[in-house]
Amino acid sequence: MNPSPPTVSATLYFKVWGILLALLLLTWAVAQVNLGPLNIVAAMTVAVAKLLLVILYFMHVRSSPRSTWLFVAAGFFWFFIMVALTMGDYLTRGAFR
Fold it and tell me: How far apart are CA 53 and CA 14, in angstroms?
């Protein structure tokens, strides 16, 4: 028997949605300010916060079994491998000309 999934109230979804909207405004605000090399750090920090909210609440990973967490982590691991390989190629393109 599978236990029934925990019910999530609509108010929680609206709170998370409101937080996502606030983070959207924060993303815009960070883009308007010249922070020099810290612009990418600030933008990526806000992007990761939004990513975590969407994955945890709207994709229901927060209340999922640990095996789901394992597959989500594996997906991110694979994504970081692909980014590392792509950046390795991109950063060394001019070195051999």
Answer: 12
